[in-house]
Write a structure and sequence with these properties.
The protein is mainly α. The chain has 3 domains: 55 residues, no CATH class; 268 residues, no CATH class; 123 residues. It is built from 22 helices and 6 strands. The strands form 2 sheets. The protein has a 4-stranded mixed sheet. A two-stranded antiparallel sheet has the order 5-6. Helix 1 crosses helix 16. The longest helix is centred in the N-terminal third of the chain and has 28 residues. The protein starts with a helix and ends with a strand. The C terminus is likely disordered.
């Protein structure tokens, strides 16, 4: 009787621990939407729905003209546009929450494959999720993280079971991936590493039976890799889907001027989770006698990508968690815990209750979400421009380009977050104008503008107050609006109050 009671208590504790693990995504993503790029993604989705086609040139800015533009996340953009249309800003939170939970499930499943003690597998999965916290926002890269984890799970499942037919799930995965986010190329690269491992092992002259088995199956794995590459071409852009990859490789200037492209600065707790997981994985590989080239190359790839740009820290987080699980699985004991339907249902109920409490405490009503947007973006300034029917060309900052592109669809922006459209030189030149560099007044794009929406904190906003070419017509706590004196208007307004001529 006592044994049964202890077993029940143990089960309850583990269900609570499981609930705590899956509460991590909810705690991290149930926050107001302040992402600067989600707006241009939604505007692109709206354009695709309206025209029933994907764009081949940029219809949103004054720059691109006939220049080729590949909307490589077109399917994601249609999805988030639909969610916003149906559910408002809550639709974007719902997207982040569902994808984050799916990532947690996939990562936990991958870790469980290696038979660690239950508490260890939960802690390892949680560490990986916490390391990815800055990326749990409504972006297409959530699909990339999910599919990357699923890809690794399929690869290791095929290796452990010897059933290479499991790899046939990969081509459909890449077909969907290539229509959702450009970083499917990371998945192809990792698949190439897996295909090359048997050859690397042959160079080491390994006689491990498992390795010999993979050597015999090299042809199959190679053909699957080719099939995955071919599957990525089944999208509206076909081979042109790779054009942004070439541009991103060439355009290195973004890494110094765009926050998410900069290297981790280790000013936040989450960056230290990234470093901790990497150090744990490095120690594990150093201790491990059975050196596997694939795991080593996976970790090196993750470290390179993640410390090059913070938007890719998920690569080293997932790679590190995978390496630690693979090295220590079966070596530190296994305390199995079957996740039955009854236990999963109990965890889901508690998870829903916990999420509801978080939403109430953070006041995530649609009204509060709209307020948060107004605190971050020029909502009132855009409404003023729309009311007075001011026309472009518009001069705006990089961070506000996406929102203005969404909020003022008839006024083309000068720049926004689409790096493959504008290029790093253009972004850098406009940034230097905004910070008031010496040649700011000679910026040809500024001189040609008839409308400027500026953040009050930017040096350019102060400089324009003394520039005879432009006239201040609106001001609030976060934004000011200037128009070119050549642009006619029936009346002028400062701080929302009409002022007669």
């Amino acid at each position: 009787m006592n044994d049964n009671l202890r077993q029940q208590e143990k089960t309850v504790r583990r269900v609570v621990l499981l609930t705590a693990l899956y509460s991590v995504p909810g705690l991290l993503v149930l926050i107001p939407i302040i992402d600067p790029d989600i707006w241009w993604h939604m505007r692109t989705g709206e354009w695709i729905v309206e025209h029933r086609a994907v764009p081949w040139t940029d219809p949103f800015s004054t720059y691109a003209g006939e220049k080729l533009w590949v909307a490589y996340s077109w399917l994601f953009e249609v999805l988030v546009y639909g969610l916003h249309r149906w559910f408002g800003l809550w639709g974007l939170i719902l997207y982040s929450l569902i994808l984050s939970l799916l990532i947690a499930v996939a990562l936990h499943k991958l870790v469980r494959r290696y038979a660690l003690p239950f508490s260890s597998e939960v802690a390892l999965t949680a560490a990986g999720l916490l390391a990815m916290k800055p990326l749990l926002s409504p972006r297409p890269w959530l699909f990339t993280i999910l599919f990357f984890v699923v890809e690794l799970d399929i690869l290791f499942a095929a290796r452990q079971s010897g059933n290479l037919r499991k790899l046939l799930w990969l081509p459909p995965l890449f077909l969907l991936w290539a229509n959702l986010h450009i970083q499917f190329v990371y998945g192809l690269f990792v698949l190439g590493l897996a295909a090359a491992e048997p050859l690397l092992e042959r160079l080491r002259r390994s006689r491990d039976p498992d390795t010999e088995g993979w050597l015999r199956s090299f042809r199959f794995l190679f053909l699957v890799t080719l099939a995955c590459g071919a599957a990525t071409l089944l999208n509206p852009y076909h081979v042109f889907v790779y054009q942004p990859v070439i541009l991103f490789i060439e355009q290195t200037g973004f890494f110094d001027y765009v926050g998410e492209m900069a290297a981790p600065k280790f000013r936040g707790l989450w960056d230290w989770f990234v470093l901790a997981t990497l150090l744990g994985a490095t120690f594990s590989l150093g201790w491990w006698r059975e050196k596997r080239p694939f795991l080593m190359l996976l970790l090196i790839t993750g470290a390179f990508l993640s410390f090059r740009a913070r938007r890719d820290v998920w690569v080293v987080a997932v790679s590190s968690v995978t390496v630690v699980a693979a090295v220590w699985g079966g070596r530190i004991g296994h305390d199995s815990f079957a996740i039955t339907r009854h236990r999963a249902a109990s965890a889901v109920v508690m998870l829903i209750i916990a999420s509801g409490v978080v939403c109430v405490r953070r006041d995530l009503s649609e009204f509060r979400l709209q307020e948060a947007v107004a605190d971050k973006f020029p909502v009132s300034a855009a409404a003023f421009v729309e009311e007075h029917k001011y026309t472009g060309p518009l001069y705006n900052h990089f961070d506000w380009g996406g929102y203005l592109l969404w909020r003022l669809p008839r006024v083309p922006v000068i720049v926004d977050g689409r790096g493959n459209v504008h290029g790093d030189k253009r972004v850098i030149d406009i940034h230097e104008t905004w910070i008031g560099k010496q040649k700011w007044s000679s910026d040809p794009h500024l001189a040609a503008s008839r409308l400027i929406i500026a953040g009050v904190e930017f040096p350019l906003a102060s400089l324009l107050r003394m520039d005879s070419r432009f006239e201040l017509v609106y001001e609030d706590k976060i934004a000011v609006v200037f128009i070119a004196r050549s642009q006619s208007a029936d009346h002028k307004t400062i701080k929302g109050q009409p002022q007669q001529d």
